[in-house]
Amino acid sequence: MDSRQLRYFAAIFEARSLSRASEALHIAPSALSHHLANLEEELATALFVRKPRGMQPTAAGERLFGHARVILRAIASAERDVRDAGREISGEVAVGMAFSAVKTIGVPLLEKVACDYPKLRLALSESLSGATLMELMASEIDLAMVYNPPLDPRLRSQPLLEERMVCIGRADVIGDTEEPLAFDDLLDLPIILLRRGNSARAIVDDAALLKRLEARARLHLNSVQAITGSLLAGLGCVIGTRHLMREHLEAGRLMARPIVAPELSRTLCLCELSERPATYARETVRQLLMHFVLDAIARGLWDARAVDK
Length: 309
What we know:
Elements lengths: L2 H13 L2 H8 L3 H15 L4 E4 L2 E4 L1 H25 L7 E7 L1 H18 L3 E7 L2 H9 L5 E5 L7 E10 L1 E4 L1 H4 L6 E2 H4 L4 E4 L3 H4 L5 H10 L2 E3 L2 H9 L4 E4 L5 H5 L4 E6 L4 E9 L6 H19 L6 E2 L3
Parallel strand pairs: 3-4, 3-5, 8-12, 9-10, 9-11
Antiparallel strand pairs: 1-2, 5-13, 6-13, 6-14, 7-11, 7-12
Helix pairs in contact: 1-2, 1-4, 5-13
């Protein structure tokens, strides 16, 4: 199997037709069919079901396309990177961020790239940590800033900061006080929790504590906007950071109480796939991300502790 076979296969997969794929690649349909037949023979499995009006991928074809997309993207990235070595930083880097990260450093990052790296195409997406991690594992993004990522040999994770978690809600829900709240007492409140899975890990990484929280949660939401609206409506309280609801806390619409016995914290990590080849563009964006995180902490814009590692 070589890169040309994979490129031809991917074109057929996306076009669902030999003739349309041949037009896109400027290759005769017979030659394209020959390459596909050789690939299927090499893999000892059919990749498509031939139909009168097109090509339907088999389960093996669907699986191979997932690999082909990653491999072809890596090859293209490597070609650009080597070709542009010593020149102005260029290329495309896709970054996924948790809401808190976008809120704090998203705009400064975009401004810096637009001003200093005009040939660098930055794609920035915002989602909850679990979704961002899935996008990284699928190679849909190059770098991910997520909370409490799992230990996985496929990931290279660099801790950036640690945030202390608090209980946030209206005064009539969590009490009109800033006194600490014991974890056991927290369980008696109407808790709003992220849905089960990696997103919930962003709240607390302790499996035993998370299980207790999930068992008592009143609402399970995966939307920051829905969570904010629910808090303001008095539907419950959330375990989060002061940074998450800073504007509403400063305006007095919401209260925050520290959680004790035990204290809860979460760690923001910069993650990438271990086996992805390094590029100048990705390294530039990685350094910018770390710079803006540390700068936000130093300037008091992010209530967190930098992790020295």
